[in-house]
Design a protein that fits this description.
Length: 576
C-alpha cells in the first residue's frame, strides 16, 4: 500500500490538556536509533500469549501450506489473530487518542495517522496514553512473531529494527487504487482490520458496503500487468489479519471505496528485509524479489509503452496538411459542425474565446453542444446508468460496459470503458460527436480559437463508471509534444462541482524524481504540482494547451456520484 507519510513524523496524540496542534510539534523530536528501539521493545514486551490468539502459533504449518497454495498470489488471513480485549483497547486509542490527516492523490483518498514506528519519540506522558498500541506494535515486531511470519510465508529473515506501520480510517468515499506495494526493501505486507466489533456485520461486511481488499492476478503468464477484474475480494472483518509477500508485478491489490456510513478502521504495515548488521542480511537480498522480466507497479506507471497497451489510439493520426488559424468558419464547416451550439460559430464569440485562451492557455465552454442534441443525449446516458446500476451509492460491477464498449486498461494505469462500435441509439449519438471531433472542420475551428497550428489528432469516447474508473498521472498520460486537449464532458447533475465524488480532470507538473530509496514515499502528484483542475460537468468543453512536462488524470469516480462521467476526449498535436 502506498505511503505519503514522513518517516520521521510522530503520531499526534489527542489529550485533554493539549490540543492536537501542540502535540504535533513532537514530530521535531527524533526517535531513538532503530537498534536501540529493538532492545527497548524486548525489555517492555508483554508475553505474546497476552497479545495474540492462543491457537495461532500452533497452526503455523497449516497456514504455511494454505499460504503457498493461495491464489492469485500467496497470502493468508487469520481470524481471530489477536486478544479481543487488547484489540478493543487498540481501537479505542486509535479513535480517541490519535490525530488523523486526510490524504488524497490520484491513487488514493483516506485518513492516516503518523508513523507508529515513532511512538517512542512521544513524551512519556503521551506514550502512557497508548499502552495497547505500543503492546501490539512491539509484539508484531518481536523476534517471536517475525519468526512466525517467516515460517508461514517462507520469506526468510525479517528486520527487527525497521518498524513500518500506521493506522488508517477509510470513511465514506475513501479508497486506494491498484498497486503492488513494491517500494524500497518491503518484504511482507499486512493489514489488521478493526471495524466496529459490536456491529451486526463485525464478522464480515456486506458487498454493498465496499471497503474490501481486492486481489488481482496477472492478466496473462506473458504479462506483468494486472487483470481487468479482481480474482478475490477479502471483506473487512473484526480481528482479522491479512498478509502477503511483496512481489513485483504480482502482488496487485486495491481497497474498494467505502460506500456505507461506517468507517473501515485498519492498521497497515510492512516487514522489511534485514538491514545491514542484522542476522540474515545479504547485499543481494533484493534480487530474490525480481523474477526475470518482472515489472513493479511503479515501473508500469512510468513505462511509456503502456499507452499502446490499451484500446485508445496510440498514435496521432495526421491531417492531410497542417491546419492553421483561418479566423473564419465557412458555410461548409458550419454544416459539419451542426452538433455544436451555433453561438460558438459566430465570429464575435470566437473572438472572445480566442482572446481568453490567449491569456490563460485554457478555457471552459459551457453548453457546447447544440441544445437539441444535448437534450436528446442526456436521457440516454441516464438510462444506461440506471440499467447498469451505476452511481447514487452503488458500485458498478466489474465487467459492466454496455453494447459496443470495451474496457481500457491496464488498471495499474487506467480503467474506463471505451466505445468501439455504435450498437444502440446512445452509441450512435456519441459516435456522431466523435466523428465531428476527428474531422478537419472541427480542427479548423480549434485552430481559429486557439491560434495553434494542428498537425494530427487522437481520441476516444469514454465512460468512467461510478465506483470503478479512473486514470493515473503517469508519463503516458502526457505526450512527447505540445498538445491541445479538447475534452467534452457529459456528466449529468451538479453533484460533481465540489470534487467530493471525484471525476475531476487534473493537470500536474510531472517534475523529476522517483520513489525515495528507503521506500517511505510513494511518488504521486502532490498539491504543489497541480496546475489546473476542472470538475466534471454537463455539456462543457475544456480546451487546454498542454506542454510535454505536464501530465493529467481523471480522479476515481465515487460510487456516490450521480452516475458515470462520460466524455469525448481528444488530443491535437501542435506544430511548433
Amino acid at each position: 500500500m502506498p505511503e505519503t507519510k514522513d518517516k520521521q513524523s510522530v503520531p499526534a496524540v489527542e489529550t485533554k490538556d493539549k490540543c492536537p496542534a501542540s502535540t504535533t510539534e513532537t514530530k521535531d523530536k527524533r526517535p531513538a536509533p532503530a537498534a536501540k528501539t529493538t532492545d527497548k521493545r524486548a525489555r517492555t514486551l508483554e508475553p505474546l500469549t497476552s497479545t495474540f490468539s492462543a491457537s495461532m502459533f500452533t497452526t503455523a504449518d497449516e497456514l504455511s501450506t494454505s499460504f503457498a497454495q493461495a491464489t492469485p498470489y500467496p497470502h493468508t488471513r487469520i481470524a481471530p489473530f489477536c486478544s479481543d480485549s487488547l484489540l478493543r483497547g487498540v481501537r479505542t486509542e486509535m479513535l480517541e487518542r490519535l490525530h488523523y490527516t486526510q490524504k488524497e492523490t490520484d491513487i488514493f483518498k483516506y485518513h492516516q495517522s503518523g508513523d507508529l514506528a515513532n511512538l517512542d519519540g512521544l513524551p512519556a506522558a503521551e506514550q502512557a496514553q497508548l499502552p495497547c498500541l505500543r503492546q501490539l506494535r512491539d509484539s508484531l515486531y518481536s523476534q517471536e512473531f517475525r519468526d512466525f511470519v517467516s515460517r508461514v510465508t517462507g520469506c526468510g529473515p525479517l528486520s527487527g529494527s525497521r518498524t513500518d506501520m500506521s493506522t488508517n480510517r477509510y470513511m465514506q468515499g475513501d479508497h486506494l487504487l491498484l498497486h503492488d506495494d513494491v517500494i524500497g526493501d518491503r518484504r511482507v505486507s499486512y493489514i489488521i482490520y478493526l471495524p466496529d466489533p459490536d456491529a451486526a456485520d463485525a464478522s464480515g461486511w456486506a458487498d454493498e458496503s465496499g471497503g474490501g481488499l481486492e486481489l488481482y492476478a496477472r492478466e496473462s503468464p506473458n504479462s506483468w500487468a494486472p487483470a481487468e477484474c479482481p480474482e478475490k475480494t477479502i471483506r473487512p472483518r473484526w480481528n482479522q489479519l491479512v498478509m502477503f509477500t511483496v512481489l513485483p508485478g504480482q502482488s496487485h491489490h486495491a481497497v474498494q471505496e467505502v460506500c456505507g456510513e461506517r468507517e473501515r478502521l485498519s492498521i497497515q504495515g510492512w516487514f522489511h528485509f534485514p538491514q545491514p548488521g542484522e542476522p540474515g542480511y545479504s547485499v543481494d537480498q533484493m534480487q530474490q524479489l525480481w523474477t526475470d522480466g518482472a515489472e513493479s507497479t511503479l515501473s508500469q506507471i512510468a513505462a511509456s509503452h503502456q499507452r499502446a497497451h490499451g484500446t485508445q489510439e496510440a498514435e496521432f493520426m495526421a491531417f492531410p496538411k497542417c491546419i492553421e488559424d483561418t479566423s473564419i468558419v465557412s458555410s461548409e464547416d458550419k454544416t459539419e459542425l451542426r452538433l455544436m451550439n451555433p453561438e460558438y460559430l459566430s465570429e464575435s464569440v470566437m473572438t472572445q474565446v480566442a482572446s481568453r485562451f490567449a491569456d490563460d492557455s485554457h478555457i471552459e465552454l459551457a453548453q457546447f453542444l447544440n441544445p437539441a442534441v444535448a437534450s436528446a443525449l442526456q436521457p440516454l446516458l441516464n438510462a444506461a446508468d440506471e440499467h447498469d446500476k451505476v452511481g447514487n451509492g452503488h458500485m458498478a460491477a466489474h465487467g459492466t460496459r454496455g453494447a459496443g464498449w470495451i474496457i481500457n486498461g491496464p488498471p495499474v494505469v487506467r480503467r474506463f470503458a471505451c466505445l468501439q462500435n455504435a450498437e444502440d441509439a446512445l452509441g450512435v449519438q456519441l459516435m456522431d460527436i466523435h466523428k465531428m471531433f476527428k474531422g478537419p472542420a472541427f480542427a479548423r475551428w480549434l485552430a481559429s480559437v486557439s491560434a495553434l497550428a494542428l498537425r494530427g489528432r487522437r481520441g476516444a469516447v469514454r465512460r468512467f463508471r461510478a465506483g470503478l474508473d479512473y486514470t493515473l498521472a503517469s508519463p503516458d498520460a502526457g505526450s512527447s509534444c505540445t498538445t491541445l486537449d479538447a475534452v467534452l464532458c457529459l456528466a449529468p447533475g451538479t453533484t460533481w462541482l465540489d470534487g467530493v465524488v471525484g471525476g475531476y480532470h487534473c493537470y500536474v507538473d510531472s517534475g523529476d524524481g522517483d520513489a525515495s530509496n528507503d521506500g517511505s514515499v510513494y511518488r504521486v502528484a502532490g498539491d504543489d504540482g497541480i496546475l489546473l483542475t476542472t470538475p466534471a460537468s454537463w455539456n462543457s468543453l475544456s480546451l487546454v494547451m498542454r506542454e510535454p512536462n505536464v501530465v493529467r488524470f481523471i480522479k476515481y469516480v465515487s460510487a456516490h456520484a450521480p452516475g458515470s462521467r462520460w466524455d469525448i476526449s481528444f488530443e491535437y498535436s501542435v506544430d511548433e
